[in-house]
Amino acid sequence: MTHQLPPADWTKRECLALLTATLGADNIRWVGGSVRDTLLGVSVSDVDCATVLDPETVMQRCRDAGIRVVPTGIDHGTVTAVFEAGADSGPVEITTLRKDVATDGRRATIAYATDWRDDAARRDFTINALYAHPKTLAISDYFGGLADLDERRVRFIGDPRERIAEDHLRILRYYRFQARFGAALDTAAEAACADMAQTLKGLSRERICDELLKLLALPDPHETVARMHTQGVLGVILPEACAVHVEALATLIAAENEQGMEHAPLRRLAALLPPSRDVAETCAARLRLSKAQRARLVSAAERQQSDTDAPEALAYRLGMESAQDRLLLLGADARALSNFTPPVFPMKGGEIVARGIAAGPQVARILQGIESRWIAEGFPNRTRVEEMLTEAVSEN
């Protein structure tokens, strides 16, 4: 029986029609997430393309057709066609069919292939190895991906241990895809991930961090994270997390849903850690978080119960994002800040100097004191701030 991809909006994009005409309909297939998500009724933004053409031929044909093309991953056979005009603009990754020659758990040596099945065989999960013809939308399914989609089962192509040995990151990808799409558990995959968890230590911290944050960004990853904990996988990448913290994640997710808050992966990461600045700093360094990410994680770790006493003051001092993080992690209602816009302190140091105070540390001290009173009084108007200034100057 031939299965066809439903004619979703993205399949009708003019830019994809142009790409098909440029490379030849029989030379390319839509593959991966766009096919999988369309079959699941999930909206599609990015479209990936597989082709029997080598990268040089792809680039030359695109240039001849006036399509801007960038060699984004030329060493791995990937180039990106960039469409910049129209409502359906955006990048399309085009990758030449490949087969693995050698792997070491972190990277693979590949050779170009001409057989679609060879290319499918090197992909991680059956649900990611579905190909759709750009004209007929006929689906090529070499490893039972359609049946697995129906069962909502995330299953490795081939032996799970062999696939994980090729790329250790597949352990974390398995859990992420299971949290996103899975219902029925694949016992072979679960056992392999648990048994080979220690291999994650050989991966770059950046790759681990990227997968962990993608997992935590999903609507409700708690059940999957709990399984990772009991199977010994979570402890390899996040040794600070214990059962109490896994339950804290569940509580946080429930609060986010109840209050209509965003699914913030860094906030959820904070829930999996003890509320300690030192622990947060250590974790941020290990995961190679950016400066901004580190600051947010550390701020969340420094939460105190007293933060819930004055949410607006907290938002003024820390910013809305960090204030919401702390309130949610403390079990408070972050909706108290829904209609609050942090005001601008209506005074400058020059006004203090104009009152006869010599420029220097004393001005800064007075300004800070007035600002503290202004916050404590709930951000009163300019008139009240001037009264505070008068009082402060009279005391010096």
Per-chain topology:
Elements: H1 14-23, E1 28-31, H2 33-40, E2 47-51, H3 55-64, E3 68-73, E4 78-83, E5 90-96, E6 98-103, E7 108-112, H4 116-121, E8 130-132, E9 139-141, H5 145-151, H6 160-166, H7 170-181, H8 187-195, H9 205-216, H10 222-230, H11 234-237, H12 243-259, H13 265-271, H14 277-286, H15 291-301, H16 311-318, H17 320-329, H18 349-353, H19 361-376, H20 382-394
Parallel strand pairs: 2-5
Antiparallel strand pairs: 1-2, 1-8, 3-4, 4-5, 6-7, 8-9
Note down, in words, how this protein is organized.
The protein is of the alpha+beta class. It folds into four domains: 1-151, Beta Polymerase, domain 2; 152-234, Hydrophobic Seed Protein, CATH 1.10.110.30; 240-342, no CATH class; 349-394, no CATH class. It contains 20 helices and nine strands.
